[in-house]
Amino acid sequence: MLDNLTQRLAKVVKTMRGEARLTEANTAEMLREVRLALLEADVALPAVREFIGKVKEKALGEEVVGSLSPGQALVGVVQRELGALMGADLGPEAAQLSFAQQPPAIILMAGLQGVGKTTTVGKLAKYLREQKKKKVLTVSADVYRPAAIAQLQSVTGQAGADFFPSTAQDKPVDIALSALDWAKKHYHDVLIIDTAGRLGIDEEMMKEIAAVHGAVKPVETLFVVDAMLGQDAINTAKAFNDALPLTGIVLTKLDGDSRGGAALSVRHITGKPIKFAGVSEKLDGLEAFDPARMANRILG
Ligand code: GDP
């Protein structure tokens, strides 16, 4: 078992009780521990560096008040900064979806294969239908895997939403435009477009999803990322963020036992709010993202 950050810091600060302020000297060793904790949580190195830099800047000169030890004071700074980085300062609206004034509001889903895109479409459809009373249509622009289209049909049915059929012979842009046309004619409030994912970053896939984006101009472009993803999260996030104007992130598989350092890496690269968390394979396993909880989880 890994120690949590407070325990780890407690070990290194025994020798420095009674100091009134956090200084370069009394925080150096503790910052090393913070850095290690983040690396163990699988946060990518550039994100760790930036974060440590910020904590250092905020911590130096901070008063150690009352009965707190310098370690506890530093943990406070780390928690505050990590919460802010996770989006605590963005306010609860950050986790809300935007709905276009002129329906249908289009939500485009992006991400690698296997991260949970299709499942998340089902979860969103269910949430929008039941909680927001929206009439929802889904469509799959994954023309490479017929099984993916069938899977979307199945989860859409379970969510009680409408499904627009597509086939492997169609082109993704045409599929998206046809579905949009159908949604307009049938007064859907929301159209969710699922897209193909590859196992790795792929130039063609990026061009294709950018073309779909250009054709339908979604109000939300959600990047779906697996919380279990380690250091690689940063490269994937960069590729999608460069290819598409993302509006938000969905972090899936938070029910797994990873610390979820991917959250920090993805925020570091995109700066976009994490709107939802996936917490089970079932369609009710979608929660509004909680920045403070995520910060605690990353710190262990
Ligand atoms: P896609 O290829 O990105 O569309 O991914 P899928 O939606 O097919 O999901 C891949 C696997 O991850 C499936 O077995 C899902 O049941 C599972 N999955 C998706 N979201 C979650 C989640 O939040 N928690 C867990 N435990 N599993 C999930």
From TrEMBL:
<feature type="binding site">
    <location>
        <begin position="111"/>
        <end position="118"/>
    </location>
    <ligand>
        <name>GTP</name>
    </ligand>
</feature>
<dbReference type="GO" id="GO:0006614">
    <property type="term" value="P:SRP-dependent cotranslational protein targeting to membrane"/>
</dbReference>
<keyword id="KW-0342">GTP-binding</keyword>
<keyword id="KW-0733">Signal recognition particle</keyword>
<keyword id="KW-0547">Nucleotide-binding</keyword>
<dbReference type="GO" id="GO:0008312">
    <property type="term" value="F:7S RNA binding"/>
</dbReference>
<comment type="subunit">
    <text>Part of the signal recognition particle protein translocation system, which is composed of SRP and FtsY. SRP is a ribonucleoprotein composed of Ffh and a 4.5S RNA molecule.</text>
</comment>
<dbReference type="GO" id="GO:0005525">
    <property type="term" value="F:GTP binding"/>
</dbReference>
<dbReference type="GO" id="GO:0048500">
    <property type="term" value="C:signal recognition particle"/>
</dbReference>
<keyword id="KW-0687">Ribonucleoprotein</keyword>
<feature type="binding site">
    <location>
        <begin position="252"/>
        <end position="255"/>
    </location>
    <ligand>
        <name>GTP</name>
    </ligand>
</feature>
<feature type="domain" description="SRP54-type proteins GTP-binding">
    <location>
        <begin position="273"/>
        <end position="286"/>
    </location>
</feature>
<dbReference type="GO" id="GO:0003924">
    <property type="term" value="F:GTPase activity"/>
</dbReference>
<keyword id="KW-0694">RNA-binding</keyword>
<keyword id="KW-0378">Hydrolase</keyword>
<comment type="function">
    <text>Involved in targeting and insertion of nascent membrane proteins into the cytoplasmic membrane. Binds to the hydrophobic signal sequence of the ribosome-nascent chain (RNC) as it emerges from the ribosomes. The SRP-RNC complex is then targeted to the cytoplasmic membrane where it interacts with the SRP receptor FtsY. Interaction with FtsY leads to the transfer of the RNC complex to the Sec translocase for insertion into the membrane, the hydrolysis of GTP by both Ffh and FtsY, and the dissociation of the SRP-FtsY complex into the individual components.</text>
</comment>
<keyword id="KW-0963">Cytoplasm</keyword>
<feature type="binding site">
    <location>
        <begin position="194"/>
        <end position="198"/>
    </location>
    <ligand>
        <name>GTP</name>
    </ligand>
</feature>
<protein>
    <recommendedName>
        <fullName>Signal recognition particle protein</fullName>
        <ecNumber>3.6.5.4</ecNumber>
    </recommendedName>
</protein>
<comment type="similarity">
    <text>Belongs to the GTP-binding SRP family. SRP54 subfamily.</text>
</comment>
